[in-house]
Design goal:
- The protein is α/β, with parallel strands linked by helices.
- It has four domains: 107 residues, OB fold (Dihydrolipoamide Acetyltransferase, E2P) (Beta Barrel); 147 residues, Rossmann fold (3-Layer(aba) Sandwich), CATH 3.40.50.10550; 84 residues; 51 residues, no CATH class.
- The protein has a five-stranded mixed barrel with strand order 1-2-3-5-4. A five-stranded parallel beta sheet has the order 7-6-8-9-10.
- α4 packs parallel to α8 and α5 packs parallel to α6.
Length: 441
C-alpha cells in the first residue's frame, strides 16, 4: 500500500480549494479578537446562536499589510471607529490553504456601512431599554447649581483637552475661582466603560465635596467612540446623584453618554465655558436683584418724602422742626442703606485684601520673636562661658583633661594644670597637702 506524505496530502487539498473555491465571499460575523502585527491584521471571527452568547461557528482570518493599509483607514474614516472585539463586520474573504501553514480566510475588503448600521441598531436598542427602565431623562431633572465651582473631572490626565479645560476655567474673564479634582480614566478603547464607571464610583463616595461632574475627552481623533455607547455606562450616568456635563470632543452624532447626561457640549473648552457662563448668569441675577432692591428703596424713600411733604402743608409752623427732623432721619437711613448695598458688593474683595494684609505682619512678628529668642540664648551661652569666669578672678584646675571637683579623685604625685585668665599653672599633689585636706575633711 502506497501512503501519501503530509505535504502531498496538503498540496491536494490546496489544489482542490483553489479550484473549487476560487472566488471571494461576503460574510457576516462578530469579531471575538483583533490584533495588528507588522502591519497585518489578524481576526478571530465567530457566529453566536441567536438569542444566546453560545458560538456556533468560528474561523480565523487575515488581512495582509498591502490590503489592510488601504482597508483600515477607509473603515475608520467612514465608520468612525477601529476594528475591535465585539463589532459586527461584513467582510469579503477568499479561501487559502497553504501546505505548510494550513487553512485561513484572507480578507479582501470590509464594508463599514454594515458595521455602522449594526452600531445604530444597538444604540437604538439601548435607548429603548433606558426609556423602558424610566431612567433616560433622570439626569435632565437635575439642576446644575447656581454656584457650581467644585468640579469633579473624569478624563485622561495627559489629554490636551483636560489642560485646555483647566486653563479655560482658571483664566476666565470674570476672575471666578474653581476647585477642580481629576479622576483619571481611559477615554478610548475597550476599557472606556469600566474605567469611567470606576471614576464615577470614586466621586460618588465623596458626593458632598462636588457640585457637578464633567466628563471630557481630549479632542483630536473621533475614532473608536463606541465605549460611550454602552448600556451599563448609560445606566450609571443616568442614576448618578450629581449633574453630569459631557464634552467628548467630536462633531458626529451624539453618543448615548451625551444623550443621557444632564448637559452635552461638543468640546472640553465648551464645557469650561458653560461653567463660567453659569456663574456669570448667577452674578448677573445677584446684580439685578441688588439693583432692584436699591431702586425699590430709593422709590419708597421718595414716596415717603412726598407723603411727608403733603402732610406738612396742613401742619402749623410749630411742627416744622419735627418735619425737618423726620426728613433728616429718612435721608440718613437712605444713605446708610446705600452704603450697606455698596459694602455688600465689595465685601468679597475686601476680605481677600484683609487676608493678604494679615500674612506679612504675621511673618514679621514670627521673625522678630525668633530673633529675640536667639538673642536670649546667646546671652545664656555667654553667661556660662568659662572665659568669663576666668576674667572675674576664678581659676579652673584640671587633672588628665577633666576639671577637679573632689579631692578624693587625686593621689600623691598627680600632675595638675590650673588655668587662670592670662595663663596656665603646672603643679603636683604632695602628701602633706593631701593629709591636711583629709584632716579637714
Amino acid at each position: 500500500m502506497h501512503a501519501l506524505s503530509l505535504y502531498e496530502l496538503n498540496s491536494i487539498v490546496s489544489e482542490v480549494i483553489h479550484t473549487t473555491m476560487s472566488r471571494s465571499y461576503w460574510v457576516e460575523a462578530e469579531v471575538s479578537e483583533a490584533r495588528e502585527r507588522n502591519g497585518h491584521l489578524y481576526l478571530e471571527l465567530i457566529q453566536k446562536e441567536e438569542g444566546t452568547n453560545t458560538p456556533i461557528a468560528r474561523a480565523s482570518a487575515k488581512c495582509w499589510r498591502s490590503a489592510w493599509s488601504l482597508i483600515g483607514p477607509h473603515f475608520e474614516r467612514v465608520a468612525g471607529l477601529q476594528v475591535r472585539a465585539g463589532l459586527q463586520l461584513m467582510v469579503q474573504v477568499h479561501a487559502q490553504f497553504h501546505p505548510q501553514f494550513g487553512f485561513s480566510w484572507i480578507v479582501d475588503d470590509i464594508n463599514p456601512e454594515y458595521t455602522m448600521g449594526d452600531m445604530a441598531r444597538k444604540r437604538q436598542e439601548i435607548i429603548r431599554q433606558l426609556k423602558d427602565e424610566g431612567v433616560f431623562g433622570l439626569q435632565k431633572e437635575l439642576k446644575v447649581p447656581m454656584f457650581a465651582q467644585r468640579i469633579a473631572v473624569i478624563s485622561s490626565a495627559s489629554a490636551a483637552g483636560y489642560g485646555d479645560f483647566c486653563n479655560q476655567l482658571s483664566d476666565n474673564e470674570y476672575g471666578f475661582a474653581f476647585s477642580i479634582e481629576l479622576f483619571p480614566a481611559t477615554m478610548q478603547g475597550e476599557q472606556v466603560e469600566q474605567s469611567i464607571i470606576s471614576a464615577l464610583d470614586a466621586i460618588n463616595a465623596e458626593e458632598d465635596a462636588f457640585d457637578c461632574v464633567v466628563i471630557i475627552r481630549g479632542g483630536g481623533a473621533t475614532a473608536d467612540l463606541s465605549g460611550f455607547d454602552t448600556l451599563l455606562l448609560a445606566e450609571n450616568v443616568a442614576n448618578f446623584p450629581l449633574p453630569i456635563i459631557t464634552g467628548i470632543g467630536h462633531e458626529r452624532d451624539e453618543s448615548i453618554l451625551d444623550m443621557i447626561s444632564n448637559t452635552r457640549v461638543k468640546t472640553p473648552t465648551a464645557a469650561a465655558a458653560f461653567l463660567v457662563n453659569n456663574l456669570a448668569n448667577t452674578l448677573g441675577m445677584i446684580e439685578d436683584a441688588q439693583t432692584s432692591v436699591f431702586r425699590y428703596v430709593q422709590n419708597r424713600m421718595q414716596m415717603e418724602k412726598m407723603r411727608l411733604q403733603r402732610l406738612s402743608t396742613g401742619i402749623t409752623m410749630q411742627f416744622s422742626m419735627m418735619k425737618t427732623r423726620q426728613e433728616g432721619m429718612l435721608d440718613a437711613r437712605f444713605v446708610r442703606l446705600s452704603q450697606r448695598i455698596s459694602e455688600a458688593l465689595s465685601e468679597k474683595r475686601l476680605r481677600l485684601e484683609m487676608i493678604s494684609n494679615r500674612l506679612l505682619p504675621l511673618a514679621d512678628r514670627k521673625l522678630t520673636a525668633e530673633k529675640h529668642r536667639m538673642e536670649l540664648l546667646a546671652q545664656r551661652v555667654e553667661s556660662v562661658d568659662p572665659k568669663r569666669l576666668l576674667r572675674l578672678g576664678y581659676s579652673i584646675t584640671y587633672h588628665n583633661g577633666r576639671a577637679v571637683k573632689d579631692l578624693k579623685e587625686l593621689s600623691v604625685g598627680d600632675e595638675l594644670t590650673t588655668m587662670v585668665e592670662n595663663g596656665i599653672i603646672k603643679s603636683a599633689v604632695t602628701e602633706n597637702i593631701i593629709n591636711k585636706r583629709k584632716r579637714k575633711a
